[in-house]
Amino acid sequence: MEMLYHSISDIVNLSEKFKIPMWQVIMKKDMEERQVTEKETFGTMRHMYLAMKQADQEYDKDLVSASKLAGGDGEKIHAFNLTGKNLMGDYASLVMEKAIKMGESNACMKRIVAAPTAGSCGVIPAVFLSYQELFGVAEDKMVEALFLCAGIGEVIAENASIAGASGGCQAEIGSASAMAAAGLAYLRGGDNDMIVNAMTFALKNMLGLTCDPVCGLVEVPCIKRNSAGAVNAVASAQLSLAGIKSAIPADEVIDSMRRIGNDMPKCLKETGEGGLAVTQTAQRLRSYQGSSEEK
Predict the structure, then answer these.
(1) Helix axes 222-241, 123-135, angle to 10 degrees
(2) Phi/psi at 275 (nearest 5 deg)?
(3) Is the dihedral of CA 119, 123, 124, 129 positive or negative?
(4) Do 182 and 154 form a contact (C-beta atoms < 8 A)?
(5) Which domains does the chain have, with CATH numbers?
(6) How far apart are the first and last CA of the chain?
(7) What does the pLDDT look like over 16-58, one tens digit per residue?
């Protein structure tokens, strides 16, 4: 039973051919590549999920990043959510909160899981941990969904990019959002078509997103984009679960992301030479940090 895939359609076809869920296709490929047992590969992925959970639990509201640009916002949105004045429901509000917290933990040098990158580390944990917390899903189910995320991320990395330096932020937050949307659709009982459409919507919504970090740090606007990417994943999963289908197939959207990334000027790909990074305020912040370091 060889599980070889290079596209989303490959994963779907293997799932249908062997009559197994998509996540099992991805798990079995890992077993073949690393020559490990099912227990071993499942244990490795469970370790990843538990590391995400630990990172979320260890958020420190009092920590501030070295640049002073990040820290404490996760606690602010937590407090706001408790007021009952939040504009969205409990789930989406908690997703926003956890995404901000994880992004801040990364900026403050706490332990996180790159999913698929450090800059996008808040999207998948926010969507998954919030879902398990509010809907009481078994941990094994969450691990299955994480396999699905991993396989989709693998396909995106092979056919486009997951790095802001080569593809812009669409490659980081966009990829993470697509992975999370697919996993969420699975957790909610979606079939293969719904899972694929969820990831497709999420990625389409992020096409063209630039990587323009202020002061060259993965803080502004990256942390807030984690929150936006996480909510985008929820919205995309809901669209798909409602039976709405993407007019453009998943693999063509991934191809488009690669072409868009290649066409994007280098000043908008993590160089700090364009976009938000060259605003007057960003330049003042950079000058302030430079003078502080000299002292």
Answers:
(1) 50
(2) 60, -140
(3) positive
(4) no
(5) 14-294 (1.10.4100)
(6) 63
(7) 999 999 999 999 999 999 999 999 999 999 999 999 999 999 9
